[in-house]
Amino acid sequence: MFAMPVQAAYLIDTGPGSPAPQGWSLNTWQSLAARFVLDNNSKITSLETFMGGTRSNASVSIYRNIFDDSTIISSFNFETLPHDPIKPAGFWQGVDGINLNLSAGTYWIAFSSDGMNYLNDVIPAPLESYAVKSIYSGWAWTPSSVIQFGVRISGVEMPSVGSPVPEPESWLTMVIGLVAAGSVMRRRSHPVNLVHN
Questions:
Q1: I need a surface site. Which of 10, 34, 127, 154 has the fewest CB within 10 A?
Q2: pTM of the prediction?
Q3: pLDDT digit string, tens, across residues 131-173
Q4: Torsion of CA 103, 108, 112, 117, to 10 degrees
Q5: How many CB atoms are closer than 10 A to CB 96?
Q6: How far, in Å, CA of 172 to CA of 10, rounded?
């Protein structure tokens, strides 16, 4: 019997947001982060934000705690696409085809760029917390109550590790072992008659 492949789905999807008069800058002097929660163990396959701007080199990183750089879990580089007159508000950009296993819990996703990019504001389903790191904050992450931007994380929820159901071969081995143990015990359970002279 063959198992059907599990399709990736959006684990986190804030929606792209609406273009604000200014939006939020993502460039050489400012990086942005958002906190998200995974309810189940998951295999992450893509990390994206909704952005526009210039062609640039960008990165997306996953942290356990954005305020402690030693908690970085993984970082991926990607090239952003230039502004598209047909899609002036931008489009989803990031990394795809990754294989990042994360256990259930709270994480931060951070985006950086060496170009002039912008992220939409007024997100339909904003995440709980956002942070900014910039030249103005001494390159330290600081919480922000005004920043919002679109985040989309795709992946597959993995079953929690518990008591797996044994395969038929395991059942067969277990039954043979029980039968063998039972027959050994049966042979030993016959009373022995001792003859006294």
A1: 10
A2: 0.76
A3: 999 998 899 999 999 999 999 999 999 876 554 555 666 666 7
A4: 110
A5: 14
A6: 40
